[in-house]
Write a structure and sequence with these properties.
The chain is an alpha/beta fold. Helix content is 47%, strand content 16%. The chain starts with a helix and ends in a 6-residue tail after the last helix.
């Protein structure tokens, strides 16, 4: 493949549902001339309540699907898959794979003044302790000690998927999950699930004096730097976006347009069975 052809290859992005659109927004902002292929595995959302073996199986399928579209890089826009299957994705992918956790951990350590960081995520992400391990490694490298407080918030994903963040019940759920952070002295809360920025206003009202860190923004910066170093960036006038989902979602298009900021094409539906039938599962 010529160097020019490498520039024109798309960037692949996948998530369990609509949450990865928050990452896609930052990718488009950081690299507005690129082409993007987004896969939302909406038939199997959420990943965060499933076993590690299942999450790795799904990740293998999604990575191989994106590789079949000749992408030049892959962004795992899902903290759960990043925590439990980033190693697998990098093992099977010939192109760079960016996860959510390390870029966000490094940014949180750099930003905190109180040396106390909060993490919220799915049960699987929090149970993996991936953020604590990443923060410990980064902080050790620079010779500081960071206290980390982590909490699983599993109901936030369905609230985001159903576009339900403004409902009075959402405020009650947010208070139940988050009120304990108010007394811990944290100054940074890492939104350790890409669905959670869709609830940023809700979370911000519950924790008004705490900075919210969007892991998608830090991942986008890391990928942009990698493509510049490898001279694979594409310069164009407008981004090109193709959307795929594994099931129909009534709120997907409206959330996508509101999140990205301009109209997007209707997603093309592919079933999980199609991924298996095409031999893309790698199993």
């Amino acid at each position: 493949m010529s160097e020019s052809d490498q520039h024109k290859q798309p960037i692949g992005v996948f998530d369990s549902g609509v949450g990865g659109l928050t990452v896609l927004k930052h990718l488009i902002h950081s690299m507005p001339g690129e082409e993007f292929v987004y896969l939302g595995d909406t038939a199997r959302v959420p990943y965060g309540n499933k076993s590690q073996d299942t999450i790795r199986h799904y990740t293998r399928q999604c990575v191989n699907f994106l590789l079949s579209l000749d992408v030049k890089a892959i962004v795992i826009a899902c903290n759960t898959a990043s925590a439990l299957a980033l190693d697998l994705a990098r093992e099977i992918s010939p192109v760079p794979v960016i996860g959510m956790i390390h870029p966000a951990a490094a940014s949180a350590v750099q930003q905190t003044l109180t040396k106390k960081i909060g993490i919220i995520g799915t049960r699987a992400t929090i149970g993996s302790h991936a953020y604590e391990q990443a923060i410990a490694k980064v902080s050790e490298d620079i010779g500081v000690h960071i206290d980390v407080y982590a909490k699983a918030c599993p109901l936030f994903v369905p609230l985001a998927e159903e576009d339900f963040g403004d409902h009075p019940s959402a405020a009650m759920i947010a208070h139940e999950y988050l009120h304990e952070f108010l007394s811990l002295g944290i100054d940074i809360l890492v939104l350790g699930c890409t669905h959670y920025p869709l609830l940023k206003e809700l979370i911000g009202k519950t924790l008004p004096d705490i900075s919210l860190l969007d892991c998608g923004e830090t991942a986008a910066k890391e990928l942009s730097a990698i493509l510049q170093i490898e001279d694979k960036s594409q310069i164009g006038e407008l981004p090109i976006v193709r959307l795929f989902t594994t099931d129909s979602v009534h709120a997907f298009s409206s959330i996508a347009e509101r999140c990205i900021g301009f109209p997007l094409p209707e997603p093309i539906r592919i079933s999980p069975e199609t991924l298996e039938d095409q031999g893309l599962s790698g199993i």
